[in-house]
Amino acid sequence: MFSIILTWIIVAWGAVSCIYMLRCAWSRFPKRDVEVDDVIPFLYPVDISLAESLLDPATEFECRWKLGPQFRETQRKRMRLFLELTRRMAHNSKVLVKYAASEQNRHDPRRAALASALQEKAIEVRLYSLVTGIKLRFWLLLRADILNAAPVLAHLRTAGEIDGLQTYSALKVAAAAAFVQLPPDELDSLTRNL
Amino acid sequence: MILLLRYIPLLLLALLLWTLVRKRSYTEAPCFFAYTIFAVAAGLARFVVHDHRQTYRLIYWITDAGYVLLGMLVMYEVLRTVLGNLTRAWWGRLIFPIILVTGISMSIGRASVVPSPLSGLEHYMLTGEIAVRVMQVLVFAGLVTLVPLLGLRWRQYSFGVATGFGIYATIMLLTTTKFSDFGTRFKLLWGWTSIVAYSLAVLIWIWFFSVPQTAETPSPDLSASTPGDLKQYKDALRRMR
Fold first, then answer.
1. More confident residue, A151 or B190
2. Which of A45-49, B4-8, B221-225 has the lowest mean pLDDT?
3. Which pLDDT belongs to residue A190?
4. Packing angle between helix B30-48 and helix B8-22, nearest 10 degrees?
5. Is the CB of residue A131 less than 8 Å away from at least one CB of chain B?
6. What is this structure's pTM?
7. Which of B34, B83, B102, B196 sits at a 20 to 30 Å CA gap from A159?
8. A159: which DSSP letter?
9. Which residues in chain B have their CB less than 8 angstroms from residue A98's CB?
10. CATH architecture of the domain covering B2-240
11. Does B113 reach chain A within 8 Å, measured CB to CB?
């Protein structure tokens, strides 16, 4: 009986996927190209130094030691803050993935290669943000701080063997390379917004 | 006329094989290329002996075993290509075995609940076929779920292969699980659904393999950036730090 139910779930998942594919095929042709103007204003700034401090084990240890019982509430705030940062990372990488996909359709091999490198990094950042976001939501939802002795935020530096901050920095470098043709002021706003 | 309709997938497979050879896709998807060669050969063998009932039965089940094995290999190739680029994590290597075990255990579980009109080796062949269909649906649905989550590109051969197999396997599993209580009418319905769904899958493969893949990795033949570009790039990096 269990296998029949599971088979039905898998068949339903497959059917939904088929419908999704049909919807994509129907709505994305002709596909709209994403221009540079569609990228920079849509990026959310990510404070990497703040993320570094949130993931720093020494800072966390110090907070735990100094705050005592109040640490749990502080840690929840820190978790929510880091969740917001990962949301921003995921959003920015999504915008860049779309831009890179659009660039790859052009016939300039140099731009296509730079876009490919950008897309690769953006996908890694999205994977990291996805895994980290799930973990953080799970901790916040189940109030893991009550069950456990407050989750260690520093453990979130890597997820799925991807170092989040290092990969995001690599994404910034790849974006700077991909947008190098921009006028200096626009390149400046890109680096500021990312 | 009916005979011609039954062998439409064979004609489409021949067209697919020609497309694969023309685009030299055998270097990028060797298992799928082997599957296509096998499918054309199996289709031809079935066509040649379709008047001889016993021989046809024998050839049908032998080639079916080939389809099951190559179907599994192609799914392995798809996962290796997609996940190889995506994650270097240790659990990445466990995904294929987990899907394989899930497919086999669900097929065995179903076989123990639903009575089969077949017996002996043919029964095991059918169980293996359902296991591969479950695997194909899982791989396809998993990839479709990953596309919006991670922003992966659809224009990759692996995705095309998974889409073709996934749509075919979903329709066939739906037909097998839903319509098996139709009795004698089921066989006719199953046969035609199978032909239409497989033809659709082959058309999807032809489309994916005739459209060029977008650039995957930076080309080593690229010309170097101009000094102006490099200066601008260095300035941008300096501002980031």
1. A151
2. B221-225
3. 78
4. 150
5. no
6. 0.74
7. B102
8. E
9. 151
10. Up-down Bundle (1.20)
11. yes
